[in-house]
Specification:
single chain, 267 residues, alpha/beta, Rossmann fold, six-stranded parallel β-sheet, four-stranded parallel β-sheet, 11 helices, binds D-glutamic acid
């Protein structure tokens, strides 16, 4: 099958990066994409930096072989651990979610107290913390992993008593610390936005890294890369395991059904 002449590659550990893809489709509808979900090796959030870097290299190589000309690392954990390596070693532009999210957080905060939530790996890496401090050294940051948000989002338990009780347990300290801005530093968390907002209150700015990264992609496309017509846009989906369950769950993340998901081997 022939590949589109230009496409943005998006990769994630699994289905979560579809939150980023969705933003790309909405904000840059003319752009073709190839999405790779590394469903055979998800989750990345609990793994070591070395392992995540190895996985990320394999995913990036596969997408480059498929002809993508710009790579979006939708996975926060992969962005946190592997972005520098990918940027140094790949010949195409590579964009991660951390820096755009950090920049958005710094412009949103009024009181300089910023919360970060993400996977254990993302929080442990200190990548968001460093990026925020690079933009605003005086920022006060509190952070913690919220691992249960991932299965809640995948199961579609995104409102009601149980997600709210879990969110409250995770987020009460952030409220007590007076954060006015909270970075949703994981692909899955935007699905729980309304529960998170109900706990944090409407005055706390919730930073969706998916929106922030799309803005950066949009700027790069305008400046450097050709943009095709909207009706020429094609979207391909590749996974390293279980295409059928990816297809089933993807609707929740993408908001619409997808027809074809192909299995690929990145090992
Ligand atoms: N995609 C991952 C992230 O954004 C969450 C799921 C995982 O742990 O792989 O960090």
């Amino acid at each position: 099958m022939s590949e589109p002449p230009f496409a943005v590659g998006v990769f994630d550990s699994g289905v979560g990066g579809l939150t980023v893809l969705k933003q790309l489709m909405v904000q840059i509808p003319s752009v073709s994409t190839v999405y790779l979900g590394d469903t055979a090796r998800v989750p990345y959030g609990t793994k070591s930096a070395d392992t995540v870097i190895r996985y990320a290299i394999a995913c990036a190589r596969l997408l480059i072989e498929r002809g993508v000309q710009l790579l979006v690392v939708a996975c926060n954990t992969a962005s946190a651990f592997a972005l520098d390596h990918l940027k140094k070693t790949l010949s195409i532009p590579v964009i991660g979610v951390i820096e755009p999210g950090a920049r958005a957080a710094v412009s949103a905060t009024q009181n300089g107290i910023i919360g970060i939530i993400g996977t254990a790996g993302t929080i442990r890496s200190g990548a968001y913390q460093d990026a925020i401090h690079a933009f605003r050294p005086s920022a006060e940051i509190i952070s913690r992993p919220c691992p249960l948000f991932v299965p809640l989002a995948e199961e579609g338990w995104i409102d009601g008593e149980i997600p709210r009780a879990i969110a409250k347990t995770y987020l009460d300290d952030f409220k007590d610390a007076g954060v006015d801005t909270l970075v949703l530093g994981c692909t899955h968390y935007p699905l729980l936005k309304s529960v998170i907002e109900s706990v944090m209150g409407k005055t706390v700015a919730l930073i969706d890294s998916a929106e922030a990264v799309t803005q950066v992609v949009s700027e790069i496309l305008t400046d450097r890369l050709p943009v095709r017509k909207r009706d020429a846009a094609r979207h391909r989906y590749l996974v390293t395991d279980a295409p059928d369950s990816f297809r089933e769950i993807s609707e929740r993340f993408l908001g619409h059904a997808i027809d074809e998901v192909d299995w690929v081997d990145v090992a």
